[in-house]
Specification:
This protein is an alpha+beta fold. The chain has 3 helices and 5 strands; from the N terminus they run βαααββββ. About 35% of the residues lie in helices and about 35% in strands. A hairpin with a 5-residue loop joins β3 (about 85-90) and β4.
Length: about 110
């Protein structure tokens, strides 16, 4: 069980794309994870994960005011699929084709290194 958690829900990006980035920060220290996300900033998923990570850090500061942030690390991080928005677009000869706009839920759990 971690010290602080943060969730980003209904983010408009497929879970598969977000998992590619979130796997790179699992188990890292918080400062190191933020710097890794800064280098992969070109991907949209990095910006979404950085927002959730900063939220988890501020949740830890709020819950434990005298906590040293440098001792925090990413204990758990995972991405779940959210609901899909289903839309129609005209295809060949006007036949409606389905477009699935995928969403995802990001969860990050921080803990203190002993």
């Amino acid at each position: 069980m971690g010290i602080a958690t943060a969730k980003g829900k209904y983010l408009s990006m497929s879970a598969r794309k977000v998992r590619l980035v979130i796997d790179s920060i699992r188990g890292m220290d918080v400062g190191e994870a933020l710097s890794v996300l800064e280098f992969v900033r070109k991907q949209k998923a990095a910006k979404l994960i950085e927002k959730v990570l900063n939220s988890a850090i501020s949740n830890a500061k709020e819950k434990f005011p005298n906590l040293d942030i440098d001792n925090l690390f990413v204990e758990e991080c995972f991405v779940d699929e959210g609901p899909m928005l289903k839309r129609l677009r005209p295809g060949f000869r006007g036949i409606p084709r389905r477009i699935r706009k995928k969403t995802s839920h990001i969860t990050i759990v921080l803990n203190e290194r002993r």
